[in-house]
Specification:
- Helix content is 43%, strand content 10%.
- The chain is an alpha+beta fold.
- Strands 5-6-4-7 form a four-stranded antiparallel β-sheet. A four-stranded antiparallel β-sheet has the order 9-10-8-11, covered by helices on one side. Strands 1-3-2 form a three-stranded antiparallel β-sheet.
- Helix 2 (29-36) crosses helix 3 and helix 19 (500-520) packs antiparallel against helix 20.
- The protein starts with 7 loop residues before the first helix and ends with a helix.
């Protein structure tokens, strides 16, 4: 028989099923599906081979062309990240890579010295975590041969590399390890005694600059490396390293959680192999931007950098600016705290200040607001009416909360003041910004405000952690939650920044609460407030 034995049973089985099923109008459906599968081609002359060729041509005209375009950009990113993974800075900072590479360089066989398994690089940063999809070994090999052939050389082994050097004692279970591709730098003979390996962290900082306003299309770890390389002029071949961009660091954002992979927001720290390379970019792209010239000549990267206002400064100067910013922010916080403290002691002349109260009548905690213990004088505070721009006496400023908390936790924590009295919560809104140790509370009515402040005055509470929604008695080194009723100009200034629609709703809630107190007493107030809140939620739905 001319047909191979492996395909005979399938041909017989296929023909038997077609005959048993009766005459079919589409006998070629099964051969078409078999032609698209990755099985070896057969010698049968049933036309499946021709159908397969037609399908391939169709793919080239449609989907495959789009895939090739996407693969082009991804391959450049893979090559850029691989260069960063094998840079002198990475070898200097990564102890595991450095020790295994030294062991590999000291072997007697020069043909295998300095080669690193590609799957070892895939499992580690920067290749891991900074690509949308983890590449295979074959994809990495194609990218290196296309975009990094002058710096790196790639080879394929028939067997897997030695597990004692790169994988430990056990065998790897990754399916993509099959193939045994390895890569090494073409200057591998100089890696053991390379001058950049003996640099200190201060010397690396001298080779680092901070850049911001990176064009949008380059806002990734690999994109910044390629963008920076394109901005560098033609450099002499006598440089100490063939990899010019040694490292790219994305500074973490204040909203990032510990352990999160930082996202590129248009700024980065870039390390070069020499200070001369850093100085070139500092000279060409100074911190004080130059006027943008739309008719200027240059490469695409240069035009985009000019359009986005790209600029750079040395890392040491960037560190100084960071320290100045942190000090200035702390200074503003201290000033605001002192202003709030001064306003709380001078806004009500009828209430004695803390220094005027004899020591034998002061609370145990001297920082407790004494004003919360005193009842407001009759006619002292303005009364909320339908014409009021905002509800009076419904704003409380809270200090010493945990900076890692959230609005949901704070709402549950402050609701304890109303639960102790067997009533529903009168907390209307928690105005809190993440990372701060203070917030504003908007209450449904002045009666709710007095209940809240009185509870936390008589029951000192500390928030132990960010998710603590119950609180506990403060310890020696724990700060007590402080509450302060905001009135007067500070109250008007706060409500001025609130939308008018929200202010009107707050006034309506306060009027309904006062009406409930006058008619049914304070016990019915909480039910009215809860019903109003539920009705508002139904209207939103």
């Amino acid at each position: 028989m001319s047909v191979p034995f492996a395909f005979v049973p399938r041909q017989i089985s296929r023909s038997t099923k077609v005959q048993g099923a009766g005459p079919s109008k589409t006998p070629s459906v099964v051969p078409q599906q078999r032609a698209r599968s990755p099985s070896p081609p057969s010698d049968s002359e049933d036309g499946s081979e021709a159908l397969g060729s037609v399908t391939t041509d169709k793919d080239k005209k449609g989907k495959r062309r789009a895939v090739d375009t996407h693969t082009h950009g991804t391959s450049e990113d893979i090559a850029a990240l691989t260069l960063l993974a094998l840079s002198d800075y990475r070898i200097w900072s990564d102890a595991d890579l450095r020790s295994k590479l030294d062991e590999c360089l000291n072997i007697g066989d020069t043909s295998a010295a300095g080669f690193v398994p590609i799957n070892y690089l895939i499992r580690r940063p920067p290749l891991r975590g900074f690509l949308s999809v983890e590449p295979s070994e074959v994809e990495v090999v194609k990218a290196l041969r296309a975009y990094a052939n002058e710096v790196l050389e790639v080879r394929m082994l028939v067997s897997a590399p030695s597990s004692s050097v790169w994988y430990g004692t056990g065998k790897t279970s990754r399916k993509k390890d099959v193939g045994g591709y390895e890569v090494r730098r073409k200057d591998w003979e100089k890696l053991l005694d390379h001058p950049l390996r003996n640099l200190s962290s201060e010397q690396w900082d001298e080779r680092t600059l901070y850049m911001e306003c990176v064009p949008t299309q380059y806002r990734s770890l690999a994109g910044i490396a390629r963008f920076t390389q394109a901005l560098l002029p033609t450099l002499p071949s006598s440089l100490p390293s063939s990899i010019h961009v040694q490292n790219v660091t994305l500074p973490s954002h204040y909203l990032d959680k510990p352990g999160d992979i930082p996202k590129c927001r248009g700024y980065a720290l870039v390390t070069f192999s020499t200070t001369e390379q850093r100085d070139v970019l500092l000279r060409d792209w100074p911190w004080k931007r130059r006027p943008y010239d739309a008719t200027g000549h240059g490469t695409l990267e240069v035009k985009e950098a000019q359009r986005f206002g790209f600029r750079t400064i040395p890392k040491m100067r960037w560190d100084q600016l960071n320290e100045e910013y942190v000090a200035y922010r702390q200074q503003l916080i201290d000033k605001a705290f002192e202003a709030n403290k001064h306003a709380s002691s001078t806004s009500r002349p009828d209430i004695p200040s803390e220094t005027d109260v004899p020591s034998h009548v002061r609370p145990k905690d001297e920082d407790l607001p004494i004003r919360a213990l005193a009842s407001p004088p009759p006619g002292g505070a303005p009364k909320t009416t339908t014409a009021s721009p905002y509800p009076y006496g419904c704003l409380v400023f809270v200090r010493n909360i945990h900076p890692e908390t959230n609005k949901t936790t704070l709402k549950a924590l402050f609701a304890k003041a109303f639960e102790d009295k067997g009533k529903s919560t009168g907390l209307d809104y928690v105005d809190f910004n993440k990372g701060m140790d203070s917030c504003y509370l908007r209450l449904a009515s002045p009666h709710h405000t007095s209940i809240l402040t009185e509870h936390f005055t008589r029951h000192p509470t500390a928030q132990v952690n960010g998710l603590d929604d119950t609180g506990r008695a403060p310890g020696e080194n724990e700060q007590t939650i402080k509450m302060e009723l905001i009135e007067g100009k500070r109250e008007a200034l706060y409500w001025k920044n609130i939308p008018e629609k929200v202010r009107r709703q707050a006034v309506e809630k306060a009027l309904q609460a006062e009406q409930s107190i006058n008619v049914c007493g304070p016990n019915i107030l909480m039910l009215s407030s809860t019903a109003t809140t539920r009705a508002g939620r139904k209207r939103k739905r």
